[in-house]
Each structure stands twice: as C-alpha cells, then as structure tokens.
Design a protein that fits this description.
CATH architecture of the largest domain in chain B: Orthogonal Bundle
Distance between the termini of chain A: 66 Å
Number of strands of chain B: 0
Shape of chain A: globular
Largest sheet of chain A: 5 strands, antiparallel
Oligomer: heterodimer
Helix content of chain B: 55-70%
Structural class of chain B: mainly alpha
Number of helices of chain A: 23
C-alpha cells in the first residue's frame, strides 16, 4: 500500500513540478505577483511529495518487501538495518530518486529562505528548478521506476552488492549529490538572470551561499568516496582518475572557479559574464557526470547503443538544459554590462589566473574522460586514457595554481603590489624552501618530486597562516590589539584560511604517500615476521568468522615497534553468501597521520598466505585536508555578509553609508 | 574484471565497484633485481588491464593482467629498454593497452587541449580586460570612480 502511495506521490510531484516550471515564469513575464508567488508553496509541497515517495521506498527496504522489484534485486532480509536503509540509494533507481529528492530540497530551500530575492528573480529561479525536476521525475517514472511490483513476491532478495554494504554508502552518495545537485541553484540563478537580462553584484551575493554550500558538500563527498575506495578496494589507492571519479571532479574544479569568480563579481562587479557562464558550465558538468555514470556509456559506446533507453533520455535532458542555457547565454550575454576595472596585478587579476588554471584543468579532465568515447564512436578504435596521462597534464597545471594561492588574499583589489605581498610571504617562502631542501637531502627515493611537493604544501599552509596574521596586524600593533582584530575578522577570512590550509594538507598527504610509501609483497607462514618502515609485523594465523550475511577468514597480525607490542591488525577475505561474492577487508591501523595497510590474498600453493603490506606516510592528511576545506566553506557560509537573509536588510544601511 | 556491461552500468559510486577483492602483484612474480623490478612496476602502471575498467595491470588481479606483468618482466630480463617493452606489448595487444596514449595526429586534440585552453583563455582574458580597460576609463567620470570606491570600501568594512 505505502509503495503505491509513494508511486502516486511521485506522479503528483511531477504534476507540481510542471506547474512550478510554467506558472511563476508566466507570472514574471506578465508582471503578476500572484502568479509568481505560486512557485513557493508548489516547490515546498513538491519537496514534501518526493520526500514521501523516498520514505515509502525506504520503508519497503526496511521491511524487506520483496514484492517490490527494486527491493528484491538489491536487498536481503539478513542485511543489517543500516545497509537496508542505505540500500535504498545503492542502485540506479533509488539513487536517481535521491538525486531528485535533493533537487527538490534545494528548490524548497530557495522558496523558503529566498524571501529577500526580487520577486521576478525568485520566480524565474523556481521555474528553472521546476523544469529540471520535471525532466528528472519524468526520467524516473518512464525509465527507472523503483516502485514496480513483482508478482508473485519471492521469499528472499538477491542482496546488495557487498562492496556497497559499508558505512561509505551512508555518507558518500548523499554528500556527493548535495554538491552535484546543489550547483543546480547556481545554474537556475544564472538562467534566471539571463532571462531578466540583468546581473549585478547583488546577484553574486545571492548566488554565493548556494555555491559555497554545494562546493562544501561536493568536497566532502569526493573525499569520502576517495577514502571509501581506499579502504574497500584493497590496494590502498586513493585516486584512480577513473571516469566515475572524474565525473565528480570536473564540477568540483569548475565549482571552485565559480566560487572565486563570484567573489570578484560581488566585490568589484567585474567578471559578470564569465561568472554566469561558469555557473552554467558547473551544473552542466554535473549533468554530464550523471549521464556518464547512469547511461552505461563508460563501459563501451557499443554497450550503450545496445540498450540506450536510459542513456538517450539523460542525453536528451543534457542537450536540452546545457544547449538551452548556452543558447540563452549567447543571445543575452552581450546585454550584461561589463563591470569594474582592475590592473592585472591585483586581487581580481589573481582570481582570473585561478579561474584560468582551474578551467583549463577541468577541460583537461573532460577531454581525457571523453576522448576514448569519441574515438571509439567515430573510428571504432579503442584507446585508453588513464592515470599516466592525467599525471602528465593535470599536475603541471596545478603546480602554478598552488604557487599562486597564498598571493591571492595578500593582493589589494584593483591594483595590488606583488613585491609587498612577496615581502609579507617571505617567512613562509624561506620555511618552505628549507623544508624542500631537507626533504631533498634526507629522503632519497624520487627526491625531486617529494622535495618540490613538500615545499609547496608548506608554502600553502604557512601562506594561509601569514594571511591570517597580516589581517590581524601581527607585528604592526600590540599583541592585545592584534588579538582583538583577530577575533573581529569576518568569518569569510577564516573560511579562506581553512580552505587554503586544507588544500595544503591534502597536497602534503598526496605527495608523501605517492613518493614515500613503502610496500612488502610476500608469503607469510603463521609465526613469521616482516619489517616495514620501523615496524615489525608478525602473522599470527588465520581463523574463520561468521557475520550476519557473510563468512570470512580473518588473518591476525601483531605490530611490534622496537620489540614492544604496539597493536594488532585484522585483515580478512570475506564471502557474501547470498551473491557468493568475495571481498577483501583490508586491515588498517592509523599511527599519527600515517597508516599501516594490510591486505591478504590467497593461500599459496606451498602453504602460507599471500600478504601485501604498505606503510602509507601522512596518508590521512589527504582526507583530513578535504574536511578542513569543507569546514572552510561552512565557516564562510556563516559570514554575516553572506547570511541568506542579509542582503536586503543591509542594503539601506549601505546606501546610508554612501550618502553620509 | 570480466563483468557484463549491464551490471557495470549499475556500478555507482566507486571506481571498479564490481571488481571485488584485489591483490595484484604476487610474490612469485617479483624480480630479484630491485632496479629491474622498480622499472617493471613503473611500466605496469602505464599498461591497461584490458578486461578491467580502467585499471592498470599493476592494480588488477585478473589473469590477463598477471600474464602481462610476467611478460613485461620477461622482456626486461631479456634486456629490453622501457620503450622496447611498450612497443612489444602494443604490437601484440594494440594501442588500447596504453593508459597514456601516444603523441599521434589522432591524439593531437587530447594532448593539445590543456595548452590550447590555457593559451586561448589567457589571450581572451588579456584582450577583453585590456580593451575594456582602455574603453571604460573614458566613460567613467571621476565622480563615478569615487562613488564606486566608496561603495567598495563601504562593503569591505
């Protein structure tokens, strides 16, 4: 019964989404306030309906209602409750429903918190959101309906893919989608502004909190995905340049660019046209990512062609929204008045450089991801574009960007003084160079790369600290006064500090684990020991273990340091009984910021167990850095100037200041 | 790994989601000469496991990946240079096996994109901002400039 109600709620949500895409827009055209205001209750009710549909599906999963095809295909009665719940979005249909739920959530939030927006802008934003929601609701109902019943109902389900039976599934997809879909708001704002033909600094101020929130979620989502892959896939890689990852990384790169160009637009009224274009491109990349992952085109162009229903549908959505928005941009962009002036050496100039490099990086990832598909479609030849390609193209683009980061916040708007900025950064510079030289002489393996990388990471960290110190007036005023200034700094300054310092942490983690990781591959008999990076691991033996829906062989290892027992590691090979599918559960011990990572293979022919052990120095900084970046985005959100309700309330005050 | 395309289409959030457990390089494959082994590992990272999703043979536990790893080490022991090993394998398995496509005319756009976008974007930014700069100074009166300054400093407080 609740399943049918859920299905019905989804159909109703589609009807409301259609109303939402037409009525407010018509109201904005006709200048009718009452028509425009239809958008808000409809958006909020639409969200409630999608939420009801989602709850109905979740309930079916929790109750193991195998009369629902989707539940039967992806669940099992013996599955722990958490994975029953998360299993709701651990499949194509359910994850699309989550996608639309988050889209509806953002639409409802604009309706609820956007009361200070000009009525036409709000109406148009809600209309564009409604249009996106209509397209995806139609997609779900026509090609990916999770509410289809199965008659007769089987006794037991086919279980969820074991790799997905992990806390990662509870955290990663919701965060990722909050980011991905969150950019739809920036997109809707951009399209609404183009329809209005008017973009100003206030527009940038309204868009920025949404972009910030989406960016923070996406940062967290990507980082959690990376950590999940790291511990789940069993060989400790943290980034693979896989198309699925690239699909989320491209919107992150252009979203980061958008975040920075929106600052220029808000503060200096410059880069308007570019910011609007970037807002369109960022969500377009999110849509493209959805298409790549959802259509099956990644496996092979031919596999896609053999079952194209879903793929063609998403492709049509893609073409409609990206094509439509870009066409609108082409027609209207010229009408947007260009804004403030600036010298190349200025805060604006630094942010243009940031945008240039980030956009080029996004384009590189885009072409690298799509090139094999295009070549295959046109010539039938297959080529591969993988990690070595991206390391060779992406890294050289990112190096100058990282060098430039600390300069950005140091330069003044309009016309900056590079020399003065460099002088203020001299301590950070000297410290980074010393650290690089130390790394060069003390660490032998791939020393060049490690030295440059460690120096860069320190440069970012100390550069961020220097900025904070300078803005507090350290060294210029008394410590007490500096402290007062420090506590009075706007939240966005702390946001910048955290985001840039977090980037430094991530760089440090990536560099250290890439250049300094050590590895042992060997066959171990019970009782045998091996040394790795100052630790000794003793293999204690294999023992069987039975979990709720799996059986496993657990290999126990004792860790010694200087002959003293420090800890132990359990690494196992697991077999999920319902699907008969094996997984590796790597054993991981965190020591400070570094990790010992143990993965076991098969029992060797002559007895003993195949074991792979890694020492991963500072590896956790990769994800901790991302969390710090995410915190930076969140802290910035609390800046008084960006608070969602702030713009109109502060406006009279500002004009007052101006006349005074 | 070998998997039907439709199941792969369901792979959701992780790369190689369906590839299952993986312990790639086996102890018996490792060469006794550490320098040669290091070269083998570097080469392996550049070669694709052809039955996997975007995995290098160094990361994959598929049989074919193992065969290729052994082949790479055989060629290295026979005294091949890195380039000769790659040529040898490409001659047998095609260019698909290379994770870093070669610099050929067909791949020109792939390799050229970063440079093209960087140069094109840089020039575009330079000329738009430069031209607008020259143009706008003429139309803004000193009063307007002062007003903008006030607005900006007002906001920055």
């Amino acid at each position: 019964m609740s399943v049918e109600l859920g299905h019905f709620a989804l159909v109703l949500a589609l009807a409301l989404a259609l109303v939402q895409s037409v009525v407010p827009f018509a109201g904005a055209r006709l200048g009718s306030l009452s028509l425009m205001r239809v958008g808000e209750p409809v958006a909020i009710t639409g969200f409630a309906l999608v939420a009801a549909a989602f709850a109905a599906l979740t309930l079916a999963y929790v109750q193991s209602d195998f009369s629902v095809l989707n539940v039967w295909e992806n669940s099992h009665s013996a599955k722990p409750l958490l994975f029953k719940v998360t299993g709701t979005w651990g499949n194509h249909e359910g994850s699309m429903l989550l996608w639309v739920l988050i889209l509806a959530l953002f639409g409802a939030m604009v309706a609820a918190f956007g009361r200070n927006l000009p009525p036409t802008l709000r109406a148009n934003v809600l209309a564009v959101q409604g249009l996106i929601a209509s397209a995806f609701l139609l997609f779900i109902l026509l090609t990916s309906n999770p509410f289809i019943r199965l008659q007769p109902a089987p006794m037991e389900g086919r279980d969820l893919n074991p790799i997905l039976q992990d806390v990662g599934l509870a955290v990663h997809p919701p965060l990722l989608y909050l980011g991905y879909v969150g950019f739809s708001i920036s997109f809707s704002f951009a399209v609404a502004a183009l329809i209005d033909g008017r973009v100003d600094a206030a527009w940038a101020r309204w868009v920025r909190p949404w972009t910030l929130a989406a960016w923070a979620f996406l940062t967290g989502g990507i980082a959690m995905g990376s950590y999940w892959a790291y511990y789940e896939l069993g060989w400790g890689g943290f980034w693979f340049w896989d198309p699925v990852e690239n699909a989320s990384f491209m919107p992150w790169l252009s979203g980061t660019a958008l975040l920075h160009s929106a600052i220029v637009m808000e503060k200096r009224s410059a880069l308007k046209i570019w910011t609007v274009l970037l807002a369109i491109l960022t969500f377009s990349l999110s849509l493209l990512g959805t298409f790549l992952v959802r259509s099956g085109v990644l496996t092979s162009v031919h596999a896609f062609a053999s079952d194209p229903t879903r793929g063609v549908f998403i492709l049509a959505i893609l073409v409609f929204f990206i094509g439509g928005a870009l066409a609108l941009f082409a027609i209207r962009a010229a009408a947007l008045a260009p804004g403030g002036l600036f010298h190349p050496i200025s805060r604006e100039g630094a942010l243009v450089l940031n945008n240039l490099l980030l956009t080029t990086a996004a384009a590189t990832v885009l072409v690298g991801t799509l090139y094999p598909l295009v070549i295959e479609a046109f010539s039938g030849d297959k080529i591969s574009v993988g990690e070595p390609f991206f390391n060779l193209t992406f890294v050289p683009l990112f190096l100058p960007l990282l060098v430039a980061v600390p300069f950005g916040p140091m330069l003044a708007w309009k016309r900056g003084d590079l020399l003065a900025a460099a002088q203020r950064l001299q301590i950070a510079f000297v410290a980074a160079v010393i650290a690089g030289l130390l790394a060069f002489f003390m660490i032998d393996r791939e020393a060049g790369f490690a030295a440059v990388g460690i120096a860069l990471a320190l440069w970012l960290l100390l550069g961020a600290l220097t900025d904070l110190a300078m803005k507090s007036g350290v060294g210029k005023v008394t410590p007490a006064a500096a402290w007062r200034r420090f506590t009075g700094l706007p939240m966005s300054i702390f946001g910048t500090f955290l985001a840039h310092a977090g980037l430094g942490m991530t760089v440090l983690g990536v560099v250290c684990v890439t250049a300094l990781e050590t590895e042992r591959i060997l066959i171990m008999e019970p009782g045998q020991s091996t040394d790795i990076s100052g630790y000794t691991l003793r293999f204690d033996g294999l023992s069987p273990f039975t979990g709720p829906n799996y059986t496993e062989d657990q290999a126990a290892f004792t860790i010694f340091s200087g002959g003293v027992v420090v800890d132990e590691i359990i690494s196992s090979k697991r077999l999920y009984t319902a699907r008969g599918m094996p997984t590796t559960e790597a054993g991981i011990k965190t020591m400070g910021f570094s990790q010992l990572y143990v993965s076991i293979g098969d029992e060797a022919a002559g007895g003993g167990l195949v074991v792979r052990i890694w020492w991963k120095p500072l590896v956790t900084l990769i994800w901790l850095g991302a969390l710090v970046m995410m915190a930076g985005g969140t802290v910035s959100l609390f800046d008084r100037r960006l608070r969602v309700g702030a713009p109109t309330r502060r406006r009279p005050a500002r004009s007052g200041e101006r006349t005074a | 790994m070998r998997m039907p395309p439709l199941i792969w289409a369901l792979a959701l959030f992780l790369p190689f989601m369906l590839s299952g457990p993986s312990i790639a390089v086996q102890p018996d494959e490792v060469l006794s000469d550490p320098a040669l082994e290091a070269r083998a590992r570097d080469l392996s990272a550049e070669l694709r496991c052809m039955v996997c999703q975007n995995q290098s043979i160094d990361d994959s536990d598929a049989e074919l990946a193992r065969d290729l790893r052994v082949l790479v080490r055989e060629r290295l022991r026979a005294g091949d240079t890195d380039a000769e090993v790659l040529d040898y394998i490409v001659a047998r398995y095609g260019e698909f096996v290379l994770l870093k496509p070669r610099f050929t005319a067909r791949n020109a756009l792939l390799w050229g994109t970063p440079l093209l976008v960087l140069l094109g974007g840089g020039l575009l930014a330079f000329f738009t901002l430069h031209k607008r700069g020259a143009h706008r100074t003429a139309i803004l009166s000193p009063d307007e400039e002062a007003e903008i300054d006030e607005i900006v400093t007002g906001r920055r407080k």
